[in-house]
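Notebook p. 47: complex prediction with flavin-adenine dinucleotide.
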Amino acid sequence: MNTAQTPHRVVILGAGYAGMATAIQLAARTRRRSDVRVTVVNAQERFTERLRLHMTATGQDVAELTIPTLLAETGARFVRGWVTAVDAHARTVRVDDSQVLHYDTLVYGLGSVADTAAVPGAQEHAYTLDSPADAAALADRLARLGAGTVVVAGSGLTGVEAAAEIAERHPELTVVLVGQREPGAGMNAKARAYLRHALTRLGVQVHTGAAVTRVLPDGVELADGRTVAAAVVLWTGGTRVSPLAAAAGLSVDDRGRVVTDATLRSVSHPDVYAVGDAAAVRQGYGVLHGTCQSGMPTGVHVGVSIARSVRGRQPQPFRFGYYHTPVSLGRHDALVQFTHPDDSPRRLCLTGRTAVWYKETVSASPWPTYRRMSRMPASGAFWPRGGRFTRLRDAR
Ligand SMILES: Cc1cc2nc3c(=O)[nH]c(=O)nc-3n(C[C@H](O)[C@H](O)[C@H](O)COP(=O)(O)OP(=O)(O)OC[C@H]3O[C@@H](n4cnc5c(N)ncnc54)[C@H](O)[C@@H]3O)c2cc1C
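Predicted complex, structure tokens below:
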């Protein structure tokens, strides 16, 4: 391993839910070692609580959580800037086109954003929940509207949460949720019925089986040729990842996510790990879909693995099983669908105030979890491994 004169340089790209988990876990485990240097690069100093961006989009205040302050407790270095290139051959990262960082191990955790390239006009005319600034711009527009229609395009859970929140905070607006799938399509019949009922109670008009094919300056066009007029369109139809991994020559899947081996290393570049939404992580039941629920464990696992590697030990296979799908329905209602490890629904659901409490507990938990991990790294390593659902025959 490296000597004290040549520290092992670990550069973590992205301080979202997954990248922060890696940074805190690794820095806490190696803080007494002078032969490991951890650097975290992120676009902003403020931690983005994506789970709460629909609250920001309706003018609600969320906590100011500062990444460098928390990292300072662990000794990790923070670089604020925009990553513009990765050179996987030279092992360098370019930040803001001016600064160059050298790495021995790279952790790629740049997350995902709404896929506004999916249909024409979305990029130009739709709002997104990609960042606090995007959500605040939407809040500002909604507050000034007074009356009119808001189309939420995309009937996945991000669309459901956003539509419910907007309808509750802005009863003067007409909210239309448009998408191909029924809200809560992966849930059991009871949960789907609850979602429908809650959306109706909030006054949300739900149009399903309707693919949006174009976003217009004043509405959306559907696959069947109809248009829905709207003063505001929020795009939540699918996600896409940064093109940087593909441009660097890393093996990526058809969605641009870094393809990982069982230990979360890039299959093409073993000195690169990938975590969170930016990684294509295969389990026995399929490839993980982007959630905070699975993203944080990928981050923790990579932190542990790198700490093992610098001690000359082998990284272990990653295993994860889903356990719940919590959905907020405004501030006074929510639904929690408990799941099997492969994300298929169990019979058990929570609704109403118990579900509101559960959802809030989940949304509030990442930052206290990081704080606890910075003092006791092992405390972060608990999540369901998924039993027989996640046993890969070729895992090693
Ligand atoms: C409104 C909304 C609600 C959601 N609700 C839930 C939920 O209830 N439960 C759940 O499990 N999941 C939920 N999700 C999904 C969840 O937020 C993501 O799966 C999670 O954020 C992924 O974590 P990550 O660390 O991979 O990426 P992110 O959290 O997106 O973090 C990536 C970080 O990288 C930074 N970054 C990106 N590109 C660059 C660059 N080029 N240079 C520098 N920095 C860069 C970003 O600024 C960000 O800080 C929700 C998502 C949204 C949008």
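Notes: The chain has eleven helices and 24 strands. The mean pLDDT is 95.
Next step: compare against the earlier run before touching the bench.
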